[in-house]
Amino acid sequence: MKQDYKKIGLGSISLLLFIFGILFSVFGDSVLRFLGLNPWSNGDTGLHNTIYYSLIFYIPALILGYKFKNHLGAKLGKTLSLIMTILLLVTLVFLVAV
Questions:
Q1: 96 has a pLDDT exceeding 80
Q2: What are phi and psi of 46, to 5 degrees?
Q3: For this UniProt entry, which segments traverse the membrane (predicted)?
């Protein structure tokens, strides 16, 4: 019985972008301060902008995962990015509504 292996391609970047998004969510405060940007919307309080900047990684990961779904890691990257994007957008809607 011959087993078909998935090839590495652009869809594989989906999982890598998701990991970068998680890392930016964790270490983004330091990166933003280094760039001279404030990680919080109102001084040291308010919305934590770092979490929403991580959407820069999640949305392309989601698109690449959908477009190249037969590549290695694309399905996992797509699924995890979709979950994080939905959670962040729902959180944003509830925070803005309050």
A1: no
A2: 95, -150
A3: 12-31, 51-68, 80-97
Please state, as a whole number, how many other Cβ atoms lie within 10 Å of the Cβ of residue 52.
Answer: 16
Q: What residue type is 42 in one-letter code?
A: N
Q: Global pTM?
A: 0.86
Judge whether residue 68 has pLDDT over 80. Answer: yes
Q: How many CA atoms lie within 13 A of 50 on its CB side?
A: 22
pLDDT at 42: 86
Q: Of how many residues is the chain composed?
A: 98
How many angstroms separate the first and last alpha carbons of the chain?
Answer: 58
pLDDT tens digits for 7-26?
889 999 999 999 999 999 99
57 in Cβ contact with 85 (< 8 Å): no
